[in-house]
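Support request from a user on the community tier.

User writes: "When I paste my C-alpha cells into the form, the page sometimes reloads and wipes my input. The last time it worked, I copied everything first. Here is what I submitted, just in case something in the input itself triggers the reload:"
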C-alpha cells in the first residue's frame, strides 16, 4: 500500500544535539582528577607551592560545557572550584595567589554555564525552524490516487544530517481527462525557504496539471511563465509524466507514457522481457531541458514511449544517485542494477529494495521516490491498483 514514510525515519539519534550527553560530564571529571594527581605528584619533586596548578582545573567545566547540560556544567564547575581551593590549602599557597587561582576556576565555570545556555537557545531556535519546515513538507506530500490497473507508491526520506531540510517533493493526480499525472521535483536549497518555495511550485504544477487537455511540456511552460509573472525567486528541477490511453489503446490494453524533463535526473523505466515481470531497464534521459525558474521562454519538449503491461516507472530525486564517494555515472549504473534485481518484487518491496541498495542506513541529502506499475488490463484488477480514483490517504507523518 502506498505510504508516506515518516519525515524523521532514518534520522540518527543525537544528530540534533538538544539532549545532553553524560560522556561530557565524565570527561570533565576525569580531566579534573588527572590535574589534581599532577598537582599532588609534583609536590614530591619540587616545592609544593611552585607545583600548584589549581588554576588549570578551569578546564573541567569548560570540557563538560561542550556537550553537557547547564546543571551538569554547574555541578562539575562546583567540584572544580572546591578542588582548586583544597589544592591551594594543601600546597600552602599564599592567600592572594590562592584566591586568584580559585576565582579563575570559578569564572571559567560561570562562563561555561552561560555558553551552554546560549548554545541551547540557538539550537532550540534552529530546531523550531526545522520543525516548521518539516511540517510544511508533510503538508506537501501527496495522498496518492488509485487509477484503474495502475499502482502507485512513494517514499520520502529526510537527510541524515540533522541541520538540513530539502526541497524535494513528489505528486500524483488524475486529471480532467482521466489520465494519471506524476510529478517529481527538487527545489535548490536546504532550509525553510527551500521548503516554502517547493510548496509554491508544487501548487502551480498541481493546479495546471489537473486541468487536463495539455501535455507535460505545456504544463511546465505554464509554470515557468507563472514563476516569472509572480516574481518567485525559485530554481528547481522537475519531471512531469502523463500516462495516456485513447479508445483504441483502451480496447487493447496499451498505454503511452509522455514526459517532459526540466533538468531533473532521468526517470527509470523497467519493461517486461520474455513474458516475465519487468526486466529491461532504460533511463529516459533524452536531452533534458533547462530547469525551472531560469528562462520563462525556455523550450520544453515532450517525449513518448509505450508503457506495456507489467512495466514499472521509477521517478526519484538526486539524493538517490549522488554520493560524495561515487560519480553520478556510477550512481546511475548502480541504481539500474538494483532496480533490475528487484523488478520481480511487488511495487512496495521493489522500492524498499532499491532504497536499501542505494542508501543503506544513511544519506547526505533528502530523497523522494515515486513509483508506478502498470498492471495488465486483460486480468482482474489487483487490490493494490484500485478501486477508487483516490485513496483516503495514510496516517499523518509523525514529526520531530
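"...and here is what came back when it finally went through:"
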Amino acid at each position: 500500500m502506498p505510504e508516506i514514510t515518516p519525515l524523521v525515519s532514518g534520522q540518527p539519534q543525537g544528530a540534533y544535539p538538544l539532549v545532553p550527553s553524560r560522556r561530557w560530564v565524565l570527561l570533565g571529571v576525569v580531566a579534573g582528577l588527572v590535574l589534581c594527581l599532577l598537582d599532588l605528584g609534583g609536590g614530591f619533586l619540587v616545592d609544593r607551592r611552585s607545583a600548584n596548578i589549581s588554576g588549570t582545573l578551569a578546564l573541567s567545566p569548560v570540557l563538560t560545557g561542550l556537550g553537557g547540560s547547564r546543571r551538569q556544567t554547574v555541578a562539575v564547575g562546583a567540584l572544580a572550584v572546591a578542588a582548586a581551593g583544597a589544592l591551594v590549602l594543601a600546597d600552602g599557597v599564599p592567600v592572594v595567589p590562592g584566591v586568584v587561582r580559585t576565582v579563575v576556576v570559578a569564572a571559567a565555570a560561570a562562563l561555561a554555564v552561560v555558553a551552554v545556555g546560549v548554545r541551547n537557545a540557538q539550537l532550540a531556535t534552529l530546531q523550531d525552524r526545522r520543525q516548521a519546515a518539516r511540517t510544511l513538507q508533510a503538508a506537501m506530500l501527496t495522498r496518492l490516487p488509485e487509477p484503474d490497473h495502475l499502482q502507485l507508491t512513494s517514499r520520502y526520506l529526510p537527510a541524515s544530517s540533522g541541520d538540513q531540510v530539502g526541497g524535494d517533493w513528489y505528486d500524483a493526480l488524475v486529471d480532467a481527462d482521466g489520465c494519471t499525472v506524476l510529478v517529481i521535483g527538487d527545489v535548490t536549497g536546504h532550509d525553510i525557504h527551500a521548503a516554502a518555495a517547493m510548496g509554491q511550485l508544487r501548487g502551480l504544477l498541481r493546479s495546471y496539471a489537473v486541468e487536463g487537455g495539455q501535455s507535460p511540456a505545456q504544463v511546465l511552460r505554464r509554470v515557468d511563465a507563472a514563476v516569472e509573472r509572480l516574481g518567485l525567486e525559485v530554481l528547481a528541477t522537475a519531471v512531469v509524466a502523463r500516462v495516456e490511453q485513447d479508445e483504441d489503446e483502451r480496447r487493447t490494453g496499451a498505454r503511452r507514457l509522455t514526459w517532459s524533463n526540466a533538468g531533473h535526473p532521468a526517470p527509470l523505466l523497467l519493461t517486461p522481457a520474455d513474458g516475465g515481470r519487468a526486466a529491461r531497464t532504460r533511463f529516459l534521459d533524452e536531452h533534458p531541458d533547462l530547469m525551472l525558474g531560469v528562462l520563462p521562454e525556455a523550450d520544453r519538449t515532450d517525449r513518448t514511449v509505450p508503457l506495456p503491461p507489467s512495466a514499472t516507472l521509477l521517478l526519484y530525486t538526486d539524493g538517490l544517485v549522488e554520493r560524495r564517494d561515487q560519480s553520478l555515472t556510477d550512481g546511475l549504473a548502480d541504481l539500474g542494477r538494483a532496480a533490475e534485481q528487484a523488478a520481480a518484487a511487488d511495487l512496495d518491496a521493489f522500492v524498499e529494495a532499491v532504497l536499501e541498495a542505494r542508501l543503506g542506513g544513511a544519506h547526505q541529502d533528502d530523497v523522494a521516490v515515486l513509483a508506478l506499475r502498470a498492471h495488465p488490463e486483460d486480468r482482474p484488477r489487483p487490490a493494490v491498483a484500485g478501486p477508487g480514483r483516490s485513496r483516503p490517504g495514510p496516517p499523518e507523518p509523525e514529526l520531530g
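Agent notes: The reload is a front-end session timeout and is unrelated to the input. The longest strand covers residues 236-244. The radius of gyration is 30 Å. Escalated to web team.
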